[in-house]
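Journal club prep, notes for RB
We'll compare a predicted complex against what the paper describes. Inputs for the adenosine-5'-triphosphate case:
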Amino acid sequence: MAKILIADDDPTILSLLNKILLSKGYEVQLAEHGGVAEKLLKSEQFDLLISDIKMEPVDGMQLLRNTRQMRPSVGVIMLTAYATVSTAVEAMKEGAFDYIPKPFKIDELLETVKRALDYQRSLSEQISGDAHIESKKYFGNIVAESEGMVNVCEMVKRVAPTKTTIMVTGDSGTGKELVAEALHSFSARSEAPFLPVNCAALPETLIESELFGHVKGAFTGATVNKEGLFEAARGGSLFLDEINSIPHQLQSKLLRAIQNKKIRKVGGTEEFEVDVRIIAASNQDLETLVKNGSFREDLFYRLSVITIDIPPLKQRPEDVLPLAQHFISLEMDGSEFPVMDNAVLSILQNYTWPGNVRELQNVIQHCLTFMKDGKITKETLPTKLIVSYEENPGAQSAALTGEFGKGKSLKAFLRAKEKEYLKNVINTMGGDKVKAAQELDISLATLYRKLPEEK
Ligand SMILES: Nc1ncnc2c1ncn2[C@@H]1O[C@H](COP(=O)(O)OP(=O)(O)OP(=O)(O)O)[C@@H](O)[C@H]1O
Ligand SMILES: [Mg+2]
């Protein structure tokens, strides 16, 4: 059963809450001010903290802030008198789950407690239940839980069997190569080779012979005939990564190879046919390069017949936990799955992932290296994630507040309609959210949770 800590300097409230919560089977601990609560939080594990706002010497807001930093996995509910609703709103911004106005109705209190506990649990459940994630959210090797990534996968499914050249765009580490591989493996070419080539990694002088091959004596050092990557990938797919770094003079030759499916080896006289599908990726905006003249316009149009753009990880927070899960299972090799703290889950979901999925993969590897007794805790995480979390502990994953996922599901539709209605009511109240909440017959806290952008 969940364990709840109550902090209030009013002994009547303490004993009342104690009685109510005990009668529902919760385990309860009492603290007569913030300082006592902090000590208990340090030495024991709790699922939920219910705290009064006005207390001496450590008040509720201070306790809230410290709890969010020290034990981010503990949900916090604030107790407040009607007169201090604005402080309560402030508390929500600091990361409190909700507030309960005093005097409270027992039903309402229990309902809020239950919601808070469910919410905390939902955070941790996303990481357990291995098989469930596996069956639902994979497309090939691609983890796709978010709407953005599901769209990418649908696009892959649709265009993979076609003959067209495909351009994959996205920030570093978003999964461009993985998508290119999927395009290959869902095509009729899947039995033939998939060859990735990083155009930026090849010196300009070598790139032509690498791609098209050379004949013996074509240049100093060309002692034998050499097959190029176009030939090696025959019947399959060639993934031209960082295509933006292809030298200008080679771009027309590449265009010919794509358009006419014909190539000529360096130093060779004959053109010959090769059937290769080109998938390209760029880490720079090719349109800008076309405008400043460093990338041929005709090649650009040829390459980007179809473009698949992968959104950065921060725009698809729903993918974070399934991806973490995926990377853990890749490493576990049948050994026992580690347990991940709720605190770790919150931190992972709040991070902005500038290095995208690759960075998440590195973080998981770090955790698996440094975890103790099969447990991944806050202390196991790289410091940068903790620092970032401490700087912005109140930021909650948009995935869990329903901000994303504007798909076709009825739920998504109803949520969008609800938002529209709530915004209308706020407008008709001249922007006064307290009045709007009264009019709507919901609490201000509920209004803010439904419209987090209005906070
Ligand atoms: N949706 C996903 N599901 C599972 N694994 C993923 C996903 N996206 C990325 N990865 C993994 O993350 C790592 C980085 O992906 P990848 O190399 O495809 O990114 P990239 O966009 O090509 O990066 P860069 O621009 O740096 O070359 C790889 O190990 C890849 O398998
Ligand atoms: Mg890559």
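Talking point for the session: Confidence is low (pLDDT under 50) at residues 127-136, 396-408.
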